[in-house]
Design goal:
alpha/beta; five-stranded parallel sheet; globular; nine-stranded mixed sheet; 2 domains; about 20% strand; Urease, subunit C, domain 1; binds zinc ion; TIM Barrel
């Protein structure tokens, strides 16, 4: 039904039936083929009768899960609107099957006070995507003075980060952890030792030597992961590690969890599926921070995702305008887009190979919301419909010019994938693509 395929003016889910779907909700022990009726945004599971006036979409062969949530995206607004806006980023999320995203504060100016955070929240409020703002941990992301955390927590903020860089001063990190913990919020650390990685463009190793590019050593990330773990333990606080990419980071996080230290972590598709030698053609769509690592790092990250050491699967969606990426490898900005490929990559390369669907849902539906202290969406009668609709057999080719994102910088261009996001239902809206 064409009216539901509208990204610009999403249709209301007033009286809509998703017919013959496989509904999978691990928290409710549900995995069954049935109909879902959505009336004014509220769910009715396997209704006895389907109203004669309902819009019925035949979705046999599709999977419906609670809505996917991307714990780490950059929406670039304010300041970087040529690369992305809150609207285009949320449309990319909808196209990629995400009903919620957490956006990072490294905009221009950064999201480090209540006025700016409220401005972003208000911009996203009418959209079908739940937008959670991760506020800056320090003023101006300068790593010196903490932001007004309590005021921001009152606005609904549950995470603080200087993402793009670490909180390098350990005394500041300690206070950030203690204060956030007291308020029921969490620090998201971009794990890096800035002195060790300064000037680097790719992973330090044989390939960086061969290509003559300045390196970012793996130990630079691992060192900060360990620092965060030890300071979190000392402070009795929880800490979240962003975009884990090294074998030793995974191993230390696993160790910390075994010790009962409250550490959570996330991992991105590019670190699970690509390695450093992809930089050999100097294509800047393979330049991100942390960089693509070795095969051993990649394998360990896959194991970490499978066994739950790495709690969340997220994209670090980092749009950049073509002009910015069309520079020499060592000067181009870090980052790749991810919202519109993450689900297809997961179904093609992860689900059924490294983890089952239930575990994938844990990593991309539940864990991100638990980390942000948000309620978990459920496929149950009487609940608000917050759903991701997946065509698990749909084959497609990644064509960046078809993205809803304003940017095209994906390392997965041309990839053939099996499994695609068909649509989402959330906040009373339904956006479901035609085939
Ligand atoms: Zn980031």
């Amino acid at each position: 039904m064409r009216k539901y395929a509208n990204f610009d003016e999403p249709a209301r889910a007033r009286n809509l039936v998703l017919q013959g779907v496989r509904a999978v909700d691990p928290e409710r022990n549900l995995d069954q083929v049935l109909d879902l009726h959505i009336r004014d945004g509220m769910l009715s599971v396997a209704p006895k009768e389907i109203p004669a006036d309902a819009d019925v979409l035949d979705l046999r062969g599709h999977i419906v899960t609670p809505g996917w949530f991307d714990l780490h995206v950059h929406l670039r607004e304010p300041g970087g609107e040529v690369a992305e806006t809150i609207l285009s980023g949320c449309q990319a999320a909808m196209n990629g099957g995400f009903t919620g995203v957490a956006c990072m504060p490294n905009t221009e100016p950064p999201l480090d006070d209540a006025g700016r955070v409220r401005w972003v929240m208000e911009k996203a409020a009418p959209l079908p995507v739940d937008l959670h703002v991760v506020a800056a941990a320090t003023r101006g992301r300068e790593g010196r003075q903490l932001v007004e955390m309590s005021e921001l927590v009152e606005l609904g903020v549950r995470a603080f980060s200087d993402d793009g860089k670490p909180i390098a001063d350990t005394a500041v990190l300690r206070h950030a952890l203690e204060y956030a913990n007291m308020l029921g919020a969490r620090i998201f650390e971009h794990a890096d030792d800035p002195d060790l990685s300064v000037g680097g463009a790719m992973n330090e190793g044989e390939w960086s030597t061969r290509l003559g590019l300045p390196g970012i050593p793996a130990v630079s990330e691992t060192l900060d992961v360990l620092r965060c773990i030890l300071v979190a333990r000392y402070a009795g606080a929880a800490v979240h590690i962003c975009h884990v990419s090294t074998k030793e980071s995974v191993e230390w996080i696993r160790w910390a969890k075994q010790q009962g230290i409250r550490v959570t972590a996330e991992v991105c598709p590019h670190h699970l599926l690509l390695t450093e030698e992809r930089c050999r053609e100097f294509d800047t769509d393979f330049k991100m921070n942390p960089p693509l690592r070795s095969e051993e790092d990649r394998q360990t990250c896959l194991k970490g995702l499978a066994d739950g050491t790495l709690d969340a699967y997220c994209t670090d969606h980092a749009p950049h305008a073509w002009e910015a990426k069309a520079q020499e490898f060592d000067v181009a900005p870090f980052g790749v887009v991810g919202l519109e490929t993450a689900l297809g990559l997961a179904f093609t390369h992860l689900v059924g190979r490294h983890l089952d669907l239930k575990a994938m849902i844990e990593r991309v539906v539940y864990a991100p919301r638990r980390i942000l202290s948000q309620p978990l969406p459920a496929i149950a009668t009487g609940e608000p419909a917050n759903l991701t609709i997946i065509d698990p057999e749909g084959s497609w080719t990644v064509r960046p010019d078809e993205f809803r994102s304003k940017s095209r910088n994906t390392p997965f261009k041309g990839w053939e994938l099996t499994g695609r996001a068909r649509g989402i239902v959330n906040r009373g809206f339904a956006v479901i693509k035609e085939v």
